[in-house]
Write a structure and sequence with these properties.
This protein is of the alpha/beta class. It is 17% helix and 24% strand. It has a five-stranded mixed β-sheet with strand order 3-2-4-1-5, covered by helices on one side. α1 crosses α2. The chain starts with 14 loop residues before the first strand and ends in a 26-residue tail after the last strand.
């Protein structure tokens, strides 16, 4: 597969990039959903050297068993007041990992797409083991409740 020209970025030029992440909560508790959303969003921003100003939009999804809080509300409480946010439900696939919050964030970044760091915390690392390792030279995040 060849590298599309959209992958090559000149210094100082920003491109629109998408970054994914997921985390799992122990139960359908609004406090746990807020904390987990904040931790995941923070890790996505930190690992990709993004600021709030770089964000274009964020789509949050939850598995069908999380109904007590909107992850977007947690992001609003963290100060993302002018970023378009959307919450939606994952399809209920039998045998899928339960109590999962996912994020798909769109941002302006100087990084090529291949250099974006997707973040899968805790048990959700099993969803995408190919993307779950922390970037070289960084400490892995603390697990929820640690």
């Amino acid at each position: 597969m060849t590298t599309p020209t959209s992958q090559v970025i000149e210094p100082g030029v920003l491109a629109v990039r998408a970054v994914r992440g997921a985390t799992q909560v122990a139960s359908d508790d609004p406090v746990l959903i807020d904390e987990a959303t904040g931790e995941l969003l923070g890790e996505i921003l930190r690992r990709n050297e993004l600021s709030d100003a770089d964000l274009i939009s964020i789509v949050f999804t939850t598995t069908h068993d999380l109904r007590s809080a909107f992850p977007a509300a947690a992001a609003r409480r963290l100060g993302l007041s002018d970023v378009p946010l959307l919450c939606t439900a994952e399809i209920a696939v039998p045998g899928a990992l339960q109590r999962v919050i996912r994020i798909l964030a769109h941002a302006h970044s100087p990084r090529p797409r291949a250099a974006m760091h997707h973040v899968y915390l805790g048990a959700t690392a099993a969803l995408r083991p190919d993307l779950s390792a922390p970037p070289p030279g960084t400490d892995p995040p603390l697990t929820q409740g640690a």
